[in-house]
Structure formats: C-alpha cells, structure tokens
Amino acid sequence: MKHFAELINALESTNKTNAKIDAIIDYLERAPDDDKLWFIALFTGKRPKRNVNTNYMKEWALEITRLPFWLFQESYSSVGDLGETLSLILPPPTEKIEKHLSEWMNEIVGLKNKSDLEKKEFVLNSWNGLDYTERLIFNKLLGGSFRIGVSDKTLINALTKFSGQEASTLMHSLMGKWQPDEVSFKELISAENINPDNSKPYPFCLAYALEKDLDELGTPYEWMIEYKWDGIRGQIIRRNDEVFIWSRGEELVTEQFPEIKEVVQNMNGNFVIDGEILAVKDDKVLNFNELQKRLNRKTFTKKMLSEIPIQVFAYDLLELEGTDLREKPVSARRAMLEELLLNENPGNIKISQVIDFENWEELNQIRENSREINSEGLMLKQKNSHYHPGRKKGDWWKWKINPLTIDAVLIYAQKGSGRRSAYYTDYTFAVKSEDKLVTIAKAYSGLTDKEIMEVSKFVNKNAIEKFGPVRTVKPELVFEIAFEGIGFSNRHKSGVALRFPRILRWRKDKTVDEIDDLVEIKKLIQ
User: Fold this and answer.
1) What gap in Å lies between CA 221 and CA 316, rounded to an integer?
2) What 3-state DSSP class applies to 368?
3) 238 and 384: one domain?
C-alpha cells in the first residue's frame, strides 16, 4: 500500500500529463505483478462492490475519536469528502501494517460474506496500522468511491511506454471483459487473449478552423461540403467477424453503442468506416446532452435505447477487405462508401449528406441556418484530398457557426492549480429565475491574467460563505458566457446544460439586474 499511496500522491500533486506518466511507470517498475494487475483494474473502473456501509465507518470513527456529531459535520462540510474527513480525524496509528495492494484488495473483496462485527474489527485494525494517506486510499477503496484524475488515454500511454506494446493493442486488451482473478498481468499487458490486428484503428484525419475568405479556396466545384455534427467522432471497424468502435479520443467504446455493434456484426465483409456517432430520433439529430446520457454505461434499459436511439452518420471509408484506401481521393472513397452502404443497407448507419450549392454566398447562408438542424456548421473537404493523419492545412476545414451567448453573474469562485493556485480562476455563474438566481454554468477560461487578479481581489473582499475551497460571493460581476449548444438536463438546478461554456468577456457595463432570464434562455433549445 505504501508504494500505491506514493503513486496516488504523485498523481494528485500535478496536472502535467508527462509527470503522471512518469509516476505510473515508476510504480510499475517497483510493484509486483499482482499489484500491477489491481492497479490497472482500479484505474479502468473495475472497482469491487462496496462491502462496508459508509455510515458504519462514520459511526466507528466517532466511537474512536469521541467527537460530537456537530463537530464531525462541520469538519465534513469543510473537507467535502467522507474518506478524507475520516482519515483526518482519526488518531495517529500505533502500529504499522505492511501489505501489498493486492493483499488489501483481496481482503476487501473477501468482506462480502463477513458479519458486521467482523467488518468492524477489520476496519479498525486497518486504520490503526495505516498513516493518513494510506488510510485515505483504504477508505476510498472500502467505500467504493476510489477515483483518480487519470484519463484512459494517459494510462494507456504510460503502459505503452512501460511495455513497448502499441496503444491500440493495449486498449483492446484492457477495455475488454476481464477480472483481476481471471488473468495475469503478463497475459493482460501482452494481449495474449486477443488479435490486436483486428481492432487496430487508423489515426484520425482532422480539420483546421477556416481562416481564409471563401474566395481564396478556389471554385466551389473543388470542394465537398458536409454538415459538422456535435457528436462523437468514431471509427467503426469490422474485421474477421469482430466489431470495434473507437472514439477520436482513442477509447474503445464498442459496448456503449450495442445497437451499432449489432448492425455492423450483421453486415458482410471487412471494412473501416469513419463517421459521427449521434443520438437521432424520428430523423432529427438530438442535442448532445441526450447523447451524453448514453455514455459510460455498462447496461442499457429498453426505455433508454428507445428514447435515445443511436445512429452513425458515415463520412469516409478507410479500409475495404484489408486494403488501405487512405491514399485515394476523398471523392473516390466516398463513392466506395456509398456502394458499401447501399449493398448492406444497415439501418443505423447512414451516409452523411453532401450539400449542393451554386456559389460561396449560398454556402454562407446554409451555414448560418445550420443550427436549425442541430448542426455546428459545415465541413469543407477538397475532393482530391487524402485521409492523412492529424491536421494538414488546406485539405479539410471546419467552418463553425458563431457561438450562442448569455449574460450571467458570478456567484461562486474557487482557486486554480499550478501557477494560478493563489488566484480564483474557477467560476460558477447564475442567471435570473423569477426572483432568484439559479446556477447555469461553470467556466475556467476566457479572462486575461490581469482580469483574473482583479476578480480574485473582488472575491477576497466580497466572499459571503465558504464551502471547503469554494467561496460564495456577492452577485455583482457580470460576464458574457459563450457556448456551443444548450439542452435540457435533470442534473442541473437550472434544468439546462451548456455545451463548452467559456467566458467571452467581462461586462463591466452591466449590472446584475441586466443578466438573462432562464425562461428566455430555454427558448434557445431546439
């Protein structure tokens, strides 16, 4: 546990990706294989079920410390995390327990069939043999709340650097259905149980934001125009009767879209399709907030599958029957894609619409109206362009519509990290709802360093309450918030969620009486 605690401390003390990768590699070089296996399990969401009621843990800690309940509640509200609060209030350990991570995890899993008295004895003995950091991790593992700020991509990059395996191979192996008691670290890391060639995706071809006048692009005939959608860019792979769906973020998301997996499984041949994964109902593209409800789930109810059906708008064909097509012009790949989908007629995979237009002026008008169909704007692709990895100026352009904006007032502020740890840089904004203020969005970017310092001075002078690191401030500072989309949401007090909110400008010319009203904001939802 000591080495694992050191790893967690190193990961939480930096926001630099390379530093996190180095910390993970350092741990892997020191830990035994069984610990490495549990490390991967925990970092990929394979946490054991909670076998100890956290209310019992709270009661046991109060028995030990004899703290009054009101003082515990004050401490809890200040810290904001139960596991950390328990670690802080417990007395120093009187002994030292030295166990590997795998031993702790096996004992925690084994609590399932133990009595409450046996569980209490195990927890109290453990608390008495662990220091603060080790206790904190133990509490989170025990309570089923273990989470760490390391993305799947960062983890895979670290494991790639450690093992020498390709990233896609490791992702294929790690994101499958496995459990720590069913596979060894060597088998998992060497991907012995898979055929990595079947799942391997291609690097995505990306576009630059349009930075030229349309007339500089040449004649309209040279370009293929499609709508730009706000979904999940993905590669749909079918090779040797296996199906894989990769997101642009290099995550294997096959199991998150079972209806797409099923329809591709029922198709013939081998191919790699590039397209956009969208929530589409009654031929209408739904707001991204609806698609988001489908993400990171392991099970799906019939109701959810019915209410938020998924389609792929196919853009491109990258491979057909083992032949790499990326060096062919996009116009040729498009023709082959149309033939494939026409022959197979998969219900959930539609060919993306190519927009007909006569001149650049007409195209500009089409772009201006794209929000009416929940599109972000347009994609411009030179008809003779290849499918190159990453971005290459001149071949593909994205031409997005201007963002939506509202005026909102700052009501909460929190200090940042790193070089900005002394300043309030994380903000929560509110709008009017009848005679109250209701939170609408959080934003972390858009202000200059000078403006951040000015806002921080205001927060220090006008803080009303504090909740851990968060400060409630007088609702006086008004900001214009830009965002890409808006949708209804049950997870937010306002009932709406903004897509990619950021600060556009500080409206020093406006007062809180002039901020936007929630009723009017909801009218922006398509």
Assistant:
1) 19
2) helix
3) yes
CA distances from 110 to 101, 138, 452 (A): 14, 15, 50
Q: Which helix (H) or strand (E) holds 170?
A: helix 167-174
Which residues of the chain fall below pLDDT 70? Answer: 78, 80, 144-147, 149, 175-177, 193-194, 196, 417-419, 526
Look at the chain and report how many structural domains it folds into: 3
pLDDT digits (tens, 9 = 90+) for 302-339: 898 999 999 999 999 999 999 999 999 999 999 999 99
Among candidate residues 511, 510, 492, 509, the one with its CA nearest the CA of residue 501: 492
Cα distance between residue 492 and residue 430, in whole Å:
12
Half-sphere exposure of 377 (CA within 13 A, CB side): 15
Alpha-carbon distances of 366 from 231, 410, 417, rounded to whole Å? 20, 36, 43
Count CB neighbours of 453 within 10 A. 14
Q: Which of 276, 17, 278, 48 is nearest to 156 (CA)?
A: 17
Question: Taking phi first (over 0 means left), then psi (-120 to 50 degrees means alpha), and beta for anything else, what does residue 157 get?
Answer: alpha
CB hemisphere CA count around 355 (13 angstroms): 23
Amino acid occupying residue 160: T
In CATH, what number is assigned to the domain containing residue 314? Answer: 3.30.470.30
Are 220 and 312 found together in one domain? yes
What sections of 128-163 are H helices per DSSP? 132-143, 152-163
d(CA 43, CA 445): 28
Given 127, 143, 159, the domain boundary residue is: 143
Say whether 281 is catalytic.
no
Distances (CA, A) of 224 to 2, 3, 255, 356, 367: 58, 55, 33, 9, 14
Predicted model pTM:
0.64
Catalytic residue among 200, 228, 261, 381: 228
Cα separation, 190 vs 33, in Å, equals 13
Distance CA 20, CA 11 (A): 5
